[in-house]
């Protein structure tokens, strides 16, 4: 049977549709919805989560994220500039730092810095927010440094050369000419980084939580323990989505705009 | 009509495919032997390491008071002991979720937990205690002396419940694992670790930098193994196993090995 390429593609697509619909039907038919609802979405438990899930848990997640992001972007910018520096030791230092913190899982970094440093030095973390947010920001800064560096490198070389030939110093050209242009390139990936940080804060609870410092994921897990039901986790997941979805949509919008502007 | 049948048949075929992707079913044996989620194995959920009850020795073999008892019972039923390490938080729900056949995790039988799982007869009596840094041992001898200080507890344990009820003037910090609590004590992040006495004692003896300064012997708790509610076959086997071990002296041998010798 000789089929044209187009027809073949068409049939392929139909088969795909039919398979997808069949899988969907099977899932819908074979799931015990009553049992699922009973185990994962009980309305009275949903109501019990509020308002603490927002006023305490989500607040803590936001505090950790904002602290982590602020620290991450400051150090990230510093390390990006060091990596682009003409001074070799700066480049080496930044490259080593980035490799180390990108290569070790956040969980391990949290344990080493959160417990290891105080045990080794006798120094104590002044408060639990910093204990969680600083390791988070150190790891984030390694990723952000690479994003920022890529953004700066994406600005055409001619921009720097023109600025220097007009008599600007390297620093001034960097701050007033290059970084503003690079920002436009790196804001979408940095926003994605922010979304990743929101989710990464769920690991901080490994360092121990009090009623006041519980983050969203921990709140959900404790809820499961108290109610012997998965509903609190579902609610926590929805609250995460309520935070991350607007941000990911913002990124999509920014990317569309950048595309339109550069056409 | 014929079309509907064909559709149903194809759906059934598809559901079979979906189901077989989902991993192993619990199989039932015809010869009346005990059926477990993995054939020939007794899969046990445990929050380990939790010395001296559940931990791995240098060769990676599961050992400890709970593990020795369960291994004996498994062997008596020609099953091999398999351990699945799980976080303690809600571990008694794991058999119902199909993760394992039973829980052996220094698990106190409480009325709350007994609503969600079936417990065997008690195989051990425990009580709560507070572990502090050796330097503080003379200072913190009552819960009241820890007022305004931070106490570490493990999430989902009876120790957590006990602390929340009795140490109301202290800050309670919850941790996922026993090992994190010990690190927090050592690092000065917390001033006491409230949990079952023998775990704290083991740590104090082994590390030498901490000491058990408070014991709550008046409020005993009973450890039991937990199985899925309704799994009477396994429950019977375990209860019989515990009774046999107590009768033939093996229980005492194991007890002495970990708590006396």
From TrEMBL, chain B:
Primary site of residence: other
The keyword Electron transport belongs to this UniProt entry's keyword annotation: no
Domain Solute-binding protein family 3/N-terminal: 41-261
N-terminal signal peptide: none
Cell compartment(s), UniProt: Cell envelope
Keyword NAD: no
GO cellular component, one term: cell envelope
Organism of provenance: freshwater metagenome
Name of the protein this chain belongs to: Unannotated protein
Keywords for this protein: Signal
PROSITE patterns: PROKAR_LIPOPROTEIN, SBP_BACTERIAL_3
Pfam families, sorted: SBP_bac_3 (PF00497)
């Amino acid at each position: 049977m000789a089929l044209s390429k187009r027809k073949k593609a068409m049939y392929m697509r139909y088969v795909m549709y039919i398979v997808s619909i069949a899988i969907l039907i099977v899932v819908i038919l074979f799931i015990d919805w009553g049992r699922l609802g009973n185990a994962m979405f009980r309305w009275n438990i949903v109501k019990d989560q509020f308002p603490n899930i927002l006023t305490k848990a989500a607040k803590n997640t936001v505090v950790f994220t904002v602290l982590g992001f602020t620290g991450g972007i400051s150090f990230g910018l510093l390390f990006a500039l060091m990596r682009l520096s003409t001074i070799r030791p700066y480049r080496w230092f930044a490259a080593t730092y980035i490799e180390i913190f990108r290569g070790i899982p956040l969980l391990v970094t949290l344990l080493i810095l959160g417990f290891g440093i105080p045990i080794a030095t006798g120094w104590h973390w002044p408060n639990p927010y910093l204990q969680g947010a600083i390791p988070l920001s150190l790891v984030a800064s390694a990723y952000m440094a690479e994003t920022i560096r890529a953004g700066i490198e994406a600005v055409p070389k001619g921009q720097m050369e023109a600025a220097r030939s007009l008599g600007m110093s390297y620093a001034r050209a960097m701050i007033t000419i290059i970084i503003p242009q690079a920002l436009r390139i790196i804001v979408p990936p940095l926003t994605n980084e922010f979304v990743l940080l929101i989710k990464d804060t769920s690991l901080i609870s490994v360092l121990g939580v009090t009623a006041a410092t519980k983050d969203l994921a921990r709140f959900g897990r404790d809820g499961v323990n108290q109610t012997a039901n998965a509903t609190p986790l579902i609610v926590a997941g929805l609250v995460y989505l309520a935070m991350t979805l607007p941000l990911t949509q913002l990124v999509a919008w920014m990317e569309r705009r950048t595309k339109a502007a550069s056409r | 009509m014929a079309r509907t049948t064909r559709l149903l048949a194809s759906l059934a075929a598809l559901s079979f495919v979906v189901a077989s992707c989902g991993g192993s079913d619990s199989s039932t044996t015809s010869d009346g032997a005990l059926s477990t989620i993995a054939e020939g194995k007794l899969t046990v959920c445990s929050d380990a390491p939790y010395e001296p009850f559940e931990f791995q020795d240098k060769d990676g073999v599961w050992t400890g008071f709970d593990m020795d008892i369960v291994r004996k019972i498994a062997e008596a039923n020609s099953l091999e002991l398999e351990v699945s390490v799980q976080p303690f938080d809600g571990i008694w729900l794991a058999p119902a979720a199909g993760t394992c056949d039973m829980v052996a995790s220094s698990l106190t039988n409480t009325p709350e937990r007994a609503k969600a799982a079936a417990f065997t007869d008690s195989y051990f009596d425990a009580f709560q205690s507070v572990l502090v840094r050796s330097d503080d041992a003379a200072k913190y001898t009552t819960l009241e002396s820890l007022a305004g200080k931070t106490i570490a507890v493990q999430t989902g344990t009876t120790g957590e419940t006990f602390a929340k009820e009795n140490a109301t003037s202290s800050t309670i910090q919850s941790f996922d694992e026993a090992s994190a609590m010990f690190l927090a004590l050592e690092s000065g992040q917390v001033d006491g670790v409230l949990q079952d006495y023998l775990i704290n004692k083991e740590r104090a003896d082994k590390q030498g930098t901490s000491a058990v300064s408070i014991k709550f012997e008046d409020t005993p708790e009973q450890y039991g193994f937990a199985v899925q509610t309704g799994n009477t076959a396994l429950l019977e086997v375990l209860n019989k196993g515990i009774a046999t071990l107590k009768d033939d002296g093996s229980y005492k041998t194991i007890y002495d090995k970990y708590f006396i010798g």
